[in-house]
Design a protein that fits this description.
By secondary structure, the chain is an alpha+beta fold. It folds into 2 domains: 75 residues, Glutaredoxin (3-Layer(aba) Sandwich), CATH 3.40.30; 176 residues, Glutathione S-transferase Yfyf (Class Pi), Chain A, domain 2, CATH 1.20.1050. The chain is built from 11 helices and 4 strands, in the order βαβαββααααααααα. The protein has a 4-stranded mixed sheet with strand order 2-1-3-4, covered by helices on one side. Helix 4 packs antiparallel against helix 5, helix 4 packs antiparallel against helix 7 and helix 4 crosses helix 11. The chain is globular. The mean pLDDT is 95.
């Protein structure tokens, strides 16, 4: 049986759980508690040297990195298919998912999450929080998070992250004005991969950012109606994290709205 090291509210874990649910695959739950630093323990680093979740175990095979896991699951379990049959369609899916690795995840969604909510966990823990930050292997990620933890929405990285998120929403709206799903007429790994990022805006009380985009709003509603959304996202929602994100999201919304207005966008 497949086994998944994951975290309940992790964006990357959510997308893999959505894929597993769409393919109706059974898997062993190996939950990692990020707030205790379990992902930075030596035993886990032997599985995943970047000390991130998720990590998929398939027999003797260890597969890290969520987007790689999505492709692995598609190749390993091709039915039902989550990739178009034609090469061009598959290329379109890859172009969407490529954005997540380039900047959407670490430099945009994660920075918004930390700047609004998760920074408070690090600050409250004092020295332990500083130690957890220093243990992040990726130096670029570590320094961005250091600045946004210290400065919150006033960090230059937060403003850039917000700009990039708005750009993504506009790109999704344009694509969805041409066809029903992100990469074409059928639901694919592109939709799987991006569903958690709209859910994160919802959790942060920032979903009102999506209101100007009618096609995108409809897409997210349809994603929510799929059984995989309930199985992979809703049932794993952590009440403590939801409270943290929603309360601080509401608190910071005027600030976020003003930043969006400065960009010349409707908030």
């Amino acid at each position: 049986m497949l086994a998944l090291y994951h975290n309940d509210m992790s964006l990357c874990a959510q997308k893999v759980r959505v894929c597993l649910a769409e393919k109706k695959l059974e898997w062993e739950d190996r939950h990692i508690v990020l707030r205790s630093g379990e992902h930075q323990k030596d035993w886990y680093r032997k599985l995943n040297r970047r000390a991130v979740v998720p990590t998929l175990i398939d027999g003797d095979y260890v597969i890290p990195e969520s987007n790689v896991i999505l492709e692995y699951l598609e190749d390993r379990f091709p039915d039902p298919p989550l990739q178009p049959k034609d090469p061009y369609g598959r290329a379109k899916v890859r172009l969407w998912i490529k954005q997540l690795d380039e900047d959407i995840h670490d430099a945009s969604a994660a920075i918004l999450s930390f700047g609004i909510a998760f920074r408070h966990q690090y600050l409250q823990r004092g020295e332990m929080g500083r130690q957890m930050l220093e243990q992040i292997p990726n130096i670029f990620k570590r320094e961005r998070r250091r600045d946004v933890i210290e400065k919150g929405p006033q960090s230059q990285h937060f403003f850039v992250a917000l700009q990039r998120m708005i750009q993504l929403l506009e790109e999704m709206e344009q694509s969805l004005s041409e066809h029903s799903w992100l990469a074409g007429a059928t639901y694919t790994l592109a939709d799987v991969a991006f569903t958690p990022y709209l859910a994160r805006l919802e959790h942060l009380n920032l979903l009102r950012m999506v209101k100007p985009y009618a096609k995108l709003s409809d897409w997210y509603a349809r994603c929510q109606q799929r059984p995989s959304f309930q199985d992979a996202i809703r049932r794993w929602e952590n009440p403590d994290y939801l409270k943290l994100m929603k309360e601080h999201g509401e608190k910071h919304w005027p600030e976020v709205s003003n930043l969006i207005t400065k960009m010349g966008k409707a908030a």
